[in-house]
Structures are given as C-alpha cells and as structure tokens.
Design brief:
globular; 254 residues; alpha+beta; mRNA Triphosphatase Cet1, Chain A; single chain
C-alpha cells in the first residue's frame, strides 16, 4: 500500500488536546518499534476502530521541533550508549500547531519507567534562562553545565486507545541538524507505545506482530548524535545504525 501523507489517519475518530489529558502518562513504560513508511497506512487501517487520533485546528499530522542539551562530555548520550539504567534527556520542544514551548526532562528509573517533567517557556533558549536552570536542578538534583547539542524535527500522529489508558505516537520525516550539518530519515517511522505497564494485548502490538515487527530500542537523540558528531563513540549502537539506515533506504525488511 502506498503512503499518502494527505490522507493519513483520515478514517479515525478524533480527540482534542484537552480530552487527551486523561492519558498524559507522565510516568510510564515506553515501547518502541521501527517500520518503513510504506507499511504505515496498512498498520493504521488495521487499528482505526481501536484508537482515536489527536486533532488540533483540523490537523492530524503535527509538527515538532526540538533542541536537545548535553554536557561538554556528552554525559546524557554516553549514559545511554553505556547502558546505564538511570539516565536523563533534556530538551526544549516546540509543539508547532499549538504554538507552545516546553522545557522537558525525561528520566529513566531503575525499573525502566520513563518519568517526564516539563514547564512552559516562551521560546527556544540556546542559553538557558535562570528559571530553566533552576527547574532542571530541581528535577535532576544535579547542577549540570549544559549546552545545545542537537536540533531535531519530525511529524507526529498521536493515537489514544478507546478502551485502555494507552497512547501511541508515530513519528516520521525525522531530521537532525547541527550548524550546517544535516541528516534526514524520510522512509523511517518510529512507533512508540506509552502504557502504565507493558501489555502485549494492545491492538498496535498485535498488529505489528502480524507483520513480524517486534519491540526495538531506539533513541532519536542518540541516532542524531551518531550522525552529526564525527568523533563520538557509538560501537554499541552500530548494529542499530546499520539497521535503520537500511530500513530508511528500503533495503531491509522485517
């Protein structure tokens, strides 16, 4: 089935941003999958009766822009690379259709839960304000010296399960940039299932399993860092990078 971005999720019932508050899931289990873009319409068709789609101002495909921060030693990147259970990511994200900026902190705890804290801010801050620094220090209990490390943009579909406390985000047209360097993944789709605890009976999990698509740990931040920093160590991510590069160029099939 060919991918048609204009008609994406057009047959889904819609849900508003306010209605989605009931499934905010700021503490959750995240499960990711990767597929080729040309499979997406078929997957969505299989689950359209099980989920509603977030709609803002008649838009169902939202634009997101993010600015990530890290230390001079790239601590957040290397914590992930070195498989530390407790790890942190810090970013400013613009939700374009809502015209809202959040400073967001995502942390993994020892049980593998994702804990997300955020505050509204007025705009992107390449130099973090005193208020932003205090928020970061309050959440992380660390006085990090942070600098911008990576820009990221993508389009997202957000689905909400009609019968369970569960959200699904579908990210496509991923692009990373740093100064003049850019890397895009036009044919790659990252699906992320957000639940209070992992449930294999989720409609999206069952549908992906039929296509032999299984959970796959992947970090957009780490993928961007590998592509844009020449001297960064990435030996533990090498197989993942090969796989997503093959997938993005339609050379790999699940």
């Amino acid at each position: 089935m060919n991918f048609n971005i204009k008609n994406i999720a057009k047959d889904f019932s819609s849900i508003s941003l306010k209605e989605m508050d009931s499934v905010a899931l700021m503490k959750r289990i995240d499960t990711k999958f990767v597929i080729r873009k040309d499979l997406l319409n078929e997957v969505l068709e299989s689950i359209r009766n099980d989920y509603s789609v977030l709609e803002i101002n008649n838009n169902r495909l939202m634009n997101y822009n993010s600015l990530y921060f890290d230390t001079d030693t790239k601590k957040f990147y290397y914590d992930h690379h070195n498989k530390r259970v407790r790890r942190t990511k810090i970013r400013i994200r613009k939700y374009v259709e809502s015209d809202i900026y959040f400073l967001e902190i995502k942390q993994k705890d020892i049980k593998g839960n994702t804990i997300k804290n955020r505050i509204k801010i007025n705009e992107f801050e390449t130099d973090l304000s005193d208020n932003s620094k205090e928020f970061i220090k309050g959440v992380t209990e660390k006085d990090y010296q942070l600098n911008p490390s990576l820009w990221n943009s993508f389009k997202r579909i957000t689905l909400v399960n009609k019968n369970a406390k569960e959200r699904v985000t579908i990210d496509l047209n991923l692009s990373f940039s740093l100064d003049e360097d850019k890397k895009s993944y036009d044919d790659l789709v990252i699906i992320e299932l957000k639940q209070e605890r992992y449930n294999r009976n989720s409609p999206i999990v069952k549908t992906l399993k039929k296509h032999r698509i299984h959970p796959y740990s992947i970090s957009k931040y780490c993928v961007g860092m590998i592509n844009l920093y020449q001297n960064i160590k990435y030996n533990r991510f090498k197989e993942k990078l090969i796989k997503i590069n093959q997938l993005s160029t339609s050379l790999w099939s699940s």
